[in-house]
Batch of 4 targets.
Target 1
Amino acid sequence: MKIDARTLGAGAALAVVLAIVPGLAAAQEGRPKLDLPFTPKGARGSYNMPGTSTKEGPGETSPYKSAKEHYEALKAAAQGADRMRKADELPDWTGVWNIDGGFVNFDPSLARDATHYGPLSPSNQAFYEKTLHELEQGIEWDSLSYCLPAGFPRWISEPFLRDFAVTPTVTYLINEQQSEVRRIYTDGRSHRPDDEAFPLWEGDSIGFWDGTGDNAKLVIWTNNLRDGVYHRNGPAYSEKAETIEVMQKIDPTHIKVDLTVYDPVDLTRPWTVHRGYVKDKLPDGHIDMWSCNENNNVVKTDAGQTQFVLPGEEGYKEPGTFGDPTLRGEGAAK
């Protein structure tokens, strides 16, 4: 299915994404059988497509004990980490990019919806298993249905197009979904002091460049995150989570990302995943700002399910009129 927020409408496009999987759940019998470590039931297993991982387990880990230790080790080994780069020393990340595998699956090395998925703490494992049980009953809910941001680190596995704006002082990582923007400051600043810090959807990110030119690596340390889940119906991360990322363009059409999460509340040890982006082949591609709210007809039922209000049903709102109390034309100023 091709989804275009420009013609469908931004909120409607997101609603379609949220609706795809329940529809796939109903069609599971017609799909090729996967050797999954669980039996698909209800909506559980709906995202597990041919070619995706069929493994379960704690995932890969890191030799470092904290994000701070990890960041300082990478900085000490880097080439010119303390020197701010000139524009002509930075890599060319222009163009429009798609996620390269791992569609709404935070760790592509593991089977989505597997019971053993990541190095989860006991309380997080209990939360996750409850979510999986509800999935088997056909109950699933996503905060994106309220037009809230995905937040980071969930941001990294969400669909839709991205573009990256690289400057000497800050790099902007932009996802068309919800127009979510991450700002990676490379001007030598530190994180916000504790007395000024507070949880943020995308966290507080600082970084440095390792090397110069098109193969230079951007090393990112993010903290001050809001709590959330790694993907729809996935396990949780806490406000104590911090991440280290290394982004590098490895050829003209691919950027790889190595990401490690440190979360003393919801993980038993660091969790490293490998992700990436592939350059879109459409000429003159671009992404747009969208407002999910302008045509979102999704509600949460008493049972905790995503429910779409259809035209003619009570509570349905005509797309494009959400922000206009005059409903466009009925008493509107000419």
Target 2
Amino acid sequence: MNRTTPPLDFASLFAPGLPPPAAKWNGFAEYNFIGGHNDADQVPLDDLIKAMNDVLAREGRMLATYGVASGPLGYKPLREFLAQKLKRTAGIGCDADEILLTSGSLQALDLVNGIFLTRGDTVIIEQATYQGVLTRLQRLGVEAVGIPLDGEGIRMDALAAALDGLERRGVRPKYIYTIPTVQNPTGTILSEARRHEMLRLSAQYGVPVFEDDCYCDLVWDGKRLPALYAMSERGGVIHIGSFSKSVAPALRVGYVVAPWPLLSRMLALKTDAGSGALEQMILGEFCPVHFEAHVPVLKRASGKTRNIDGYAQPAFRNRGRIRRSERRHFPLGQIPVTSRYAKTVRAGARRRRRHQSRRRMVDRPKLRQKPHAAVFRQSVARNDPRRDRCPGRSVPP
């Protein structure tokens, strides 16, 4: 080999429009607020180990077959459990063949987007929403119309106005994406009256509802409200969920609930030869025996962290809208734009500001005018020099 030959320039071959390169992972920050990690002490490890041993001893040789003899929808015992659970807890009447198991709810998002969206389409989302949704819509070249929220979730007056305005322009949104139960990032729960109104607007304007219920098992106070999928009388809802928050996120098991005509289209795009079978088999063995007892234990343990008086709350006391969260995740609840411990910015603006400034927090309320994601800062320094520069701001010790 000629040693003077320059190395191949892979960058010159990259497809146009790629997102910025990922940063190299150097471990978690000391105070890690990135992502919805679970409490490691609450992972039901002993029961998962037993479930794995039992199911492998009984059915392990089926791992030699793609789909473990359950077909492309996923491990059938787990789908059967989900059908029973969804009926009991969410009021959803479906059978196992109306459930598609996926590699986490993110793959479910991709499959739903794949059958509906193309560049230039329009969707309706909550103005503060899951960052994974925003990045996908941006990459697809889809216009996202953000609807503001209040203490009861997405505002129906604003949704009606947006739908009417789009109809006047001759634009029919492909779907209304919502996280109605323990909304990410606000933690709100859409009231039953608003759920009925959303379904009414969906029917009036001919726009389906895309319901993301991945946090629904972690409702603390009172009974969980029926899912939009269960309340719909015209079948205009697609429902997705996950075991990430109720059992463990690293298992990467999510699901889609939809009629077969839609699932058949998603399966045509799901060309991964099946999501991880071992994880599905473990959950299919664990959940029928332990899930119903495990979730209340998880919620009780998580409840001990709900009142954050000893740490974050003193930093925000008398400073506005930070309040106690009534849900497990995103414990700062209603995140104001001016909070020092959250950034609420559009995805593009976030990248530009990181490049332009070393500061971790910039207050720009005007960015609320367009859809945004709440991104928690990676760390809180113990000895923060901003104490001297910003005497009016409190930093947790």
Target 3
Amino acid sequence: MPRSIGEGYLLGVDIGGTFTDFVLLGETSGRVMTGKVLTRNDDLAAGVLAGVRALLTRYNIASGAVRKVVHGTTLATNALIERRGARTALIVTRGFRDILELARESRYDIFDIDLRVPPPLVPRRLVFEVTERIGADGSIVEPLAIPEVAGIARALKDARVDAVAVCLLHSFRNPEHERKLAAALHEARPTLAISLSSDVMPDLREYERASTAVANAYLQPIMRSYLDRLAEGLRAAGIGADLMLIGSDAGTIGREAALRYPVRLVESGPAGGALAASFLGRRAGEQDIIAFDVGGTTAKVCVIDGGVPERADEFEVARVHRFAKGSGLPLKVPVIEMIEIGAGGGSIARVDELGLLRVGPDSAAANPGPACYGLGGELPTVTDADLVLGYLDADFFLGGAMRLDRERAAAAIKRHVADPLRLSATRAAWGIHAVVNDNMARAARVHCLERGKDSRDYVLLAYGGAGPVHAAQVAAALGMRRVLYPLRAGVMSALGFLAAPIAFERLRADVGPLADVDIARANTILDELTGEARELVRAAGVPASSCNVKREASLRFAGQSYALPVPLPAVRLTRAHLAALRAQFVAQYRKRYYRLNPDVPVELVQWRVSVAGPKPDLRIAPVEPGSRNARKGSRPVYFAEAGRYVDCAVYDRFALGAGKHLRGPAVIEEPESTVVVGPGSACAVDRDGNVMVTLAAGRRKERIAA
């Protein structure tokens, strides 16, 4: 029988491309319980519900004791990539029917004569024009032709359209026409899902605004179906807590906000991981870290300065060439700034037509999975290589819940890599491991350099199921000396969800010279944005008195295309504040780019308001190692520094008490991940069970196994 309902529990659920992770945290005891299951891509909701039931049963927790559920899902991202959203139409200003087809008229690879671009989510035949015109200043140049809406509604019905996006010219300055059009459409077809660009993202750049509004409409019906099923399933299981969702900016939003703005759920899982890295880094006394998350399909890198992850307001999804900027669909939504690399445990290794070893970006994912899973996969992957090299224990994968087949892994590597390259299986496995490490290190180095950061000034914080296996080699390649391995690294994104405050951000474009800003209008816009964000946060259960309001203005030098955010004072703006804003902008610009444009006037681009509830005060109990021996035994592990397999000590992560010191070579295991410590590196365990590794000085020359 489940234990009686006393202590409340917080539940975090993260659906990844290969695994779905669960974290259950006791509100008062700080006890952390975890679970990990293969992702059911055929029915995500059923997979989550089965995993929740298994977790509660395993730890004997009554379902009614779950007081909070925070969920991150890949459904939105996968629907955009796999084109599994609703049948969607787009309505635009007459004369702008080809906005999605024309896009930016730029080429992400100027030398590729066969260059492909992502097809729009809405085909041209489902793009409808309406007579109207709003001027760049927000004035009505031509009234909206309401009688035309009836004909459009009939065409939408005939085309069996389920969702429609509306993106009219300059609607970010004046949304009147979009709102009237939406009202007329709703009257004609009440069940139609409607997304207005002036609501979803009232920002300049017509194509990006249209792309974002279309993606939002495209996702609304399927997200409603999924979240309704999941919420109903949780209630049926006895969990009465409201379902909360993690957004792409690492803020928690309520279910209604998620249904209204599902495009903000894209990339929610990685955002949770970055938030967890920030939270755990601060607890460990490390404010400047590089978060390094390697899962089954991809690796993500995020720079965190002063305990705060970098943010952006635009990113791409569904890239035709996965890691080529400009080859995807742009989405203008607030997001944690990170780089994604096609490198993970499931990344497939092969020899290309030039006889070179390639790893990724394609992945075996959960189905069929790596060869060692024994689920039908026949191609060698990074996980297969790690198993052959001894980094993973075939009998302790997922804590023993899933046994790996080392012979299958070795056979796949021999057939597809070792034999074509005339290498031993060990040398081929190390080659796979080294290539994927180099891919990740090069991408991380470029990501840092593009932001003016020196990776040597940071601590690498490694998490994800595969991150701790590869982190030491990646850190060494980046010139970093220290690596922090948090406890429960394999489910850290799900833990990060529980540390996310309820928050929502609103913005509005308002382009013009900073010196000419209409102060009264600016204060009106800021008040409106604050009210909109407050209402969404209040609907998620946060009273107005508990809200924290952060306001920003985005500024640029006249003639530039992109802007920098500058904090605004909490009081009502006066003209005296404008000079201070300009000085702050110049200081930020100098810090970022060094060179200035002293004779060029500064422009305002947009106002931005973020409203957040209190940060959750998570209590995480220290791990009690008990009296059991931390050393589990030993096994042969390949280290390039030695050029051979070394008899390596294997430790139980949960039996290592605070203050414990180790020296490599060593392997430290927990059910969801494995830490590999190279020869000569020193380890220290802190109060939270995190392992800080100081790498051996300098990289010894790697010797290749015979």
Target 4
Amino acid sequence: MKKSAALYLSAREASAELAISPATLYAYVSRGLIRSEPSLDSRSHRYRAEDVRLLKQRRTPSPEPRGLRSFDADLPVMDSAIATITEDGPIYRGVNCIELAEKDTLEHAATLLWDVAGVDPFSRDNCPLVSGEMRAVADAARRAAPIDRTIAVLALAASADPRAFTRAAEGRAMVGGRILRLVVATMLNGSSSGEPLHLQIAKAWAPDNKHAADLIRRALVLLADHELNASTFTVRCAASTGLNLYDAIIAGLVALKGPKHGGAGVLAAQLVKTLVDGDVAPVIRERVALGERFAGFGHGVYKHGDRRAHALLQALARAGAAQKLTREIPERIAEATGEFVNIDYALAVLVHTLGLAPGNELVLFAMARTVGWIAHACEQLRHGGLIRPRARYIGPAPGRSPAFNRP
């Protein structure tokens, strides 16, 4: 199968997906509802699969209340050139992140997502400017949660960086490089360095594990961006008000902490701890019988499995991680529930394999996703305009409020 196949459908496939005639398909294209472009052979046209499926969702009633659905087709949809999601994995500006993670670094993924060519955001001299106040806050918060400490330091960082408010695209990329290095150093309770980020993290977390650097490098690239998720949308909303990049990243870090987003990795770590010793079959059977969910399994976007998780678990298996964690547990839970492994479980296995404390799943996630947040903040700032969705009012009609009519 061609690499681009997951992104496109033929006219026949698109018509079948929507149960419409080719003539109706062409009408949708003419109205701008479905994007179309010439096929590689130039003899026919191909159609964007995500547009076809979004239109299908709009035409299919959901059993959930409108406005309360996850991944609702009526929720905000934005044009972005940064990334998209396919069943073959996220695509970073035309490059599959699964393939990118085989050999590239987070820094290279960043220059790709930030669309940088004329400058090097990760030159050795592009280090963050750290004020005395920032150092004092970092020292005072050394025992605080890494994300909380980083939020506190970032709150002071724009004032210390005289180029924080630059509007030049290359200038923003350089600011992005300083932010990423500051985020990693602060989360590690260390000093900023020009050394590759995955090596810094591996030396701080697992200096005696010969596989740690490569495994961390892979995870960072796989997590760098994931289109318009909750934290990224939060970042774009914040950036649309005209915030500098430092403050926009704070918005993303706060949103990421939620248990339904980045915090799911911590819950997956608890699952790993529960299942790592003893027979997994009775534990899974009991939890299924009780109707309990398995953190790290199932995904609102990937219906047939998260390719990022498979890629990381395969790398862990090659590095000697327990087959029980990399293969047996995912297969048994999928068989029992029909839900496939996602990246949160794979991160939990990585943290367990490296002998790290639970909670570092979220820290690694935050380090990596900072790259995507910077990309989206820059794109939003470049396009301009305030993001201001409207609410669909479902409250009492005027004059009929129970509180208003009380005696």
